Amino acid sequence: FAPICSCGKGCVPGIATGPTAGGIVFFPEGLYLVSTSLVVNTGRRILLLGAGRAAAILLCGITGSGANPLLEISSPNNNFLIQGLGFQGNALTGSSGNGHAIALINREAGAGVTTFWPQQVMIRDCAIEYFQGTGKDSTGASIPACGVYMFGGTQQLMANTSIYTCRGGFRLDKMQKVYIQQSSVDVASVSAVRLEDCVAIS
């Protein structure tokens, strides 16, 4: 990977205009207020790397009923790594609360998924907490906010990632080949792991 930028501020333009081969977006230690969803829908290999999940924290300022996620990775995307970041909501409910922390969504699929995107996304060494509002499912309908919401993708790995005090933990809808390893969801969440029409989950 080649570096795109080395600070939280300006990372979104870096992702959008970086080299076609992809690159690294590095967040040094700090608290970064995110007031608009970070949407990555390129086909490039991107690494979002933080200084540590307790050191580099993305604070979600996106609220509303059925709020957009803090970070969305949508199709077509592959070889995407998120590592060493904290994702923090505002701990409020209803229209004052946040939506999903991270959403991996196949925007090219309807009710029937025939091509699975995004592919090969890894979330590693991250902490997600206090997302207690309502987010959106793939159809735009409101659902309880999740730490990680996934729809229509394949080959995803969640490793050493913790979800605290969110309404939902990991929610998987029409997914293939998802692996959750050494990760945890606290008991305050409504559902730790929810599966809808999925195959090869471990």
Describe the structure.
The chain is mainly beta. It has 1 helix and 22 strands. A hairpin with a 5-residue loop joins strand 13 (134-136) and strand 14 (142-144). The radius of gyration is 15 Å and the shape is globular. The relative contact order is 0.14. The model is unreliable at 1-9 (pLDDT under 50).
Summary?
With 202 residues, the chain is mainly β.
> How many beta-strand elements?
22
SSE run: EHEEEEEEEEEEEEEEEEEEEEE
- Rounded to the nearest angstrom, the distance between the terminal CA atoms is 29 Å
Query: What fraction strand?
Result: over 45%
Helix content: under 10%
- Biggest sheet strand line-up: 1-2-5-8-11-16-19-22
Total number of helices: 1
Query: Biggest sheet: strands, sense, closure?
Result: 8 strands, parallel
Write the layout of secondary structure elements.
Layout: E1 3-5, H1 11-17, E2 23-27, E3 30-34, E4 38-40, E5 46-50, E6 56-60, E7 71-74, E8 78-83, E9 86-88, E10 102-105, E11 119-124, E12 127-129, E13 134-136, E14 142-144, E15 146-151, E16 154-159, E17 162-164, E18 168-173, E19 176-181, E20 184-185, E21 191-196, E22 199-201
Parallel strand pairs: 1-2, 2-5, 3-6, 4-7, 5-8, 6-9, 7-10, 8-11, 9-12, 10-15, 11-16, 12-17, 15-18, 16-19, 17-20, 18-21, 19-22
Antiparallel strand pairs: 13-14
